[in-house]
Structure to design on (462 residues):
């Protein structure tokens, strides 16, 4: 990813009508209808080879958990297969507009969380693969995820395509709105989660989500995690073991300076915080550190949690996650960041409406990490309770959030000029989503076969 200064475009200084015309001219380079084409490349790599290559350098003992989670369903497979989709999108048609993109914009990487001002917002919440790349790649990954999730729910092909279409249509609508808005007004906009839920047409689902919000608002997330994740052992407060998902790293435990390594890592994290954040961090002391397996695509990477307490006894949980090369790097280049944690943090601060006050970077030996709060009033979507209309509405919310994120580093007027006002872009994205859902199902079956044949080891946890 290039430095932030290099992301500015001279197009912003041109009149609005001229910028929109620049976008329309890009249709000659990449006709919108052609964006919907998905064809298997003649040189397409074996998907299992791609997964195993993406697993290189991860903690070997945890890889069976990764594959066990991915094999559960085509949708679970898709969540862990960002590297495969990046390979498939490479060389596909695009308009040549390259903002900072999420790189893994599937529907479960969107959700609600609390801002430092304690507002509940809806936004993208995962930036491990953030990079500069074609905006279409994020839209395609989002739309395909909706079609695949709809199929997992047993919805028919019409509902699958409708969910994908709704996300792309929303992206186009909101990009057009941002293109015409004053620059600062567009930059400051955030999506109010409570308003989003209040607008839900399904009464039962609205009441369910509003109850979840009330429950979340009524508890301190750190105190809640404290009751779940800690115990007193041998007279000392410790993070509770729950192997193989939460554990104190055995390799480090055999090393007498385990605690010293953790302290050095956190000292580097502190040194990288802005001065005003250091003042806050210094009110806490480290109590314990443990490894914690998270997600699907992240399984096997070095991730953990740190328990800290203040002089008042207030708990604070920080999560550190290994930052590896983005799956887009092989196709879009690495850019200027030498530290992958810096790349992730830059992407999050740029694309999110508001970011965690504890967001930062650190390093341990040859591994790069970023740090954030373990959980701060996070509200995730429950696809399993959604009807077709609900999923389509959720797709619209995700499309809105994605447009809001992309316009932070790209000219919304140019993108909007390219997308136009008709249904062509949404039609193409829905067609792509349906085609790629079929490819994903075949790749999932390839993983099933690889596990059956002993080529891949998988562990399914109850």
């Amino acid at each position: 990813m290039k430095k932030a200064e290099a992301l500015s475009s001279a197009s912003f200084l041109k009149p609005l009508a001229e910028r929109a015309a620049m976008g329309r001219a890009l249709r000659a380079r990449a006709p919108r209808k052609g964006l919907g084409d998905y064809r298997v490349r003649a040189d397409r790599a074996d998907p299992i080879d791609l997964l195993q290559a993406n697993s290189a350098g991860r903690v070997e003992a945890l890889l069976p958990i990764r594959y066990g989670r991915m094999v559960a369903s085509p949708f679970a497979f898709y969540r862990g297969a960002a590297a495969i989709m990046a390979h498939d999108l490479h060389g596909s048609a695009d308009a040549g507009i390259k903002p900072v993109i999420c790189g893994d914009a599937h529907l479960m990487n969107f959700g609600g969380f609390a801002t430092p001002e304690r507002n509940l917002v809806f936004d993208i919440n995962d930036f491990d693969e953030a990079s500069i790349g074609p905006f279409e790649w994020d839209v395609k990954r989002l739309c395909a995820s909706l079609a695949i999730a709809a199929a997992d729910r047993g919805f028919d092909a019409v509902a699958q395509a409708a969910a994908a279409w709704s996300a792309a249509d929303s992206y186009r609508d909101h990009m057009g709105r941002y293109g015409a808005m004053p620059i600062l007004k567009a930059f400051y906009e955030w999506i109010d989660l409570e308003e989003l839920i209040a607008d839900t047409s399904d009464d039962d689902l609205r009441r369910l989500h509003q109850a979840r919000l009330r429950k979340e608002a009524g508890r301190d997330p750190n105190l809640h995690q404290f009751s779940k994740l800690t115990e007193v052992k041998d007279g000392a407060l410790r993070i509770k073991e729950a192997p193989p998902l939460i554990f104190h790293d055995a390799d480090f435990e055999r090393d007498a300076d385990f605690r010293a390594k953790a302290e050095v890592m956190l000292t580097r994290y502190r040194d990288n915080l802005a001065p005003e954040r250091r003042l806050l961090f210094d009110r806490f002391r480290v109590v314990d550190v443990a490894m914690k397996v998270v997600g699907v695509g992240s399984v096997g990477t070095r991730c953990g949690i740190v328990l800290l307490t203040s002089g008042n006894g207030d708990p604070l949980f920080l999560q550190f996650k290994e930052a590896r090369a983005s799956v887009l790097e092989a196709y879009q280049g690495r850019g200027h960041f030498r530290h992958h944690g810096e790349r992730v943090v830059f992407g999050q601060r740029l694309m999110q409406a508001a970011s965690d006050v504890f967001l930062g970077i650190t390093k341990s030996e040859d591994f790069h990490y970023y740090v954030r709060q373990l959980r701060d009033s996070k509200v995730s979507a429950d696809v399993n309770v959604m009807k077709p209309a609900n999923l389509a509405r959720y797709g619209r919310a995700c499309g809105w959030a994605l447009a809001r994120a992309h316009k932070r580093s790209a000219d919304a007027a140019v993108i909007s000029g390219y997308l136009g006002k008709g249904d062509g872009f949404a039609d193409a994205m829905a067609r792509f989503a349906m085609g790629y859902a079929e490819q994903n199902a075949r790749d999932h079956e390839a993983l099933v076969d690889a596990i059956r044949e002993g080529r891949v080891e998988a562990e399914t946890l109850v």
